[in-house]
């Protein structure tokens, strides 16, 4: 799945398959400017930062179990969001610090370090990487991902795929080759 935010005409958090199909709104009320998003892959939760409401909230992948982690002035000027173990990590662009927030109670907020300039934050740790099973976009014996001549996108599950073409090409009638 692909998760993303939008705050154009109607602010929302959405999800879809990797090929863009099955687009679903998972949050579309009491939300203004969702700018950062982080996933808890193990427990299947979506966290987002709303810079207009000065809040960090969470829902499950279906948009249920919504609640606010933290809200108020202490989290103004935040950008970027990452989740690892019991904490959310973000960057305060006002005082240039990395901020750690307890994702279960929201009361344990600490500035960890200062950086000159950042707009995003990521956690890279082996335990956050999911194991990869065989999938529909694996390279075939001819070196083509999923049998697609250009781009292979996973579809509704790891066994299904959709082929797409680079700009300037159109997908052939076979659904795999680009012309």
From TrEMBL:
GO terms for molecular function: Wnt receptor activity; Wnt-protein binding. GO terms for biological process: canonical Wnt signaling pathway. InterPro entries: 6-blade_b-propeller_TolB-like (IPR011042), Cueball_EGF_LRP_Nidogen (IPR050778), LDLR_classB_rpt (IPR000033). LDL-receptor class B repeats lie at residues 1-43, 44-87. SUPFAM superfamilies: YWTD domain. GO terms for cellular component: plasma membrane. This is LRP1B protein. It comes from Aegotheles bennettii. The gene is Lrp1b_1.
